[in-house]
Design a protein that fits this description.
This protein has three helices and four strands. By secondary structure, it is α+β, with helices and mostly antiparallel strands. The mean pLDDT is about 85. It has a single domain, classed as Multidrug-efflux Transporter Regulator, Chain: A, Domain 2 (Orthogonal Bundle). A hairpin with a 2-residue loop joins β3 and β4.
Length: about 70
């Protein structure tokens, strides 16, 4: 297996781009950018001018949302 094929928490073991997040959550790309502006979505970081997401952070975001929903 290559590094890209290796899974960590059910996600690819490589940094994700906004398009990946939009595809994963089946939302428009603009929604991902709105989440970023409002700080309501998974945390991302910049590499120069490029936005990236760590799969572990996305997994933690999903787990936190599930926990919030279960408590509601």
């Amino acid at each position: 297996m290559t590094a890209v094929e290796t899974l960590r928490g059910g996600l690819p073991d490589c940094y994700l781009v906004p398009e990946d997040i939009a595809t994963m959550f089946k939302v428009p790309l603009e929604t991902v950018y709105q989440w970023r502006r409002k700080r309501t979505g998974p945390p991302g970081f910049r590499i120069g001018k490029h936005l990236r997401y760590d799969p572990a952070d996305v997994y933690a975001f999903i787990a936190a949302r599930k926990q919030e929903d279960a408590a509601a």
